[in-house]
Target: Transcriptional regulator
Amino acid sequence: MDVVENRIGTGSATGAAQGSGSGGATGPEPVEPVEGVGDPRRALGGFLRARRARVAPEHVGLTGGGRRRVRGLRREELAQLAGISVDYYVRLEQGRATQPSPEVLDALARALGLDAAERGHLATLATPRRGPAPTARVSRPLLRVLDALDPLPAFATDHRLDVVAWNDLGAELIGGVADPDRRDRNQARYLFLDPGSRVVHPDWRERATEAVGQLRVSAGRYPDDAELAGLITDLSTRSDEFRRIWASGEVLMCGAGRKRLRHPVAGLLTLDFEALNVPAAPGELGLVVHVFSAEEGGEGAAGLARLAEVVRDMDVRDTAMRDTAMRDTAMRDTAGWDMEERPGLPVPS
Model:
């Protein structure tokens, strides 16, 4: 199995995004920046607004207070719950107050009912990191690991959700990512701009929400990443669903669980998955290796066996096509050499 050529593909996030399976439409030019992208102060305020809109007053011991013009908590209600002044909270939302103390952040997180990932994101927005994102390279040891995981499907993504490495089963499981003509190599573009993603992912809305939540974490961590900002802006312009989920302030980190995926030949597969982190540098986001498995003897294992058979058949066909091409080339070269040795006869072009 040719590991390097089959895994790296275009070799960069930009090249992977250009290998689009989403029809190549560029859509209208974005007219304004997306809240939460590029400007950390606006990102902090936007996240707070989105999260207070998700908190029902009755769930935190407050009465409805009559007709409300906005969903969720009012600014003064959140400030009261967090034990801070309304003026200071308003300045936080407007980006006029910077670097709130850990105590203020903890109080806001408690009042909003944030989980661990959301608390971490809030802290990141309050103390933004400036400068380019560190480069997470696809190393040869990582490629060997992916290859050694066979017969388990596996692939790796970077902080922009570009699929940058894979083994054969992993590529086929998620829609044929090894072939840029079959699908876009960016997971978010594939989910939101390619209708075929809804066939591969029966639980499409969950996968879409995960993708947006992961991009929000990356955007908070790396506000100066122009490629990431461009991706989010492009998706916000071209997809109403992306824009709606983004506005909800969703934050998610890769973890573990169970997913359903559908393959045109292997059928519907229900598989367990684990996300393994390969940091680009200490404390930084890097690559995430997604590994799928199934309990031995179950329907999931049977589905993986069917998928492996599909991949073997594809390898046989690819080998046969390469052998035929090499034989035809050799025959043309030989014919050309024979003609050159026999003057007066035309030489094949």
The first strand starts at residue 154 and ends at 157. The mean pLDDT is 82. The chain is about 50% helix and 10% strand. Strands lie at 154-157, 163-166, 256-263, 267-278, 287-293.
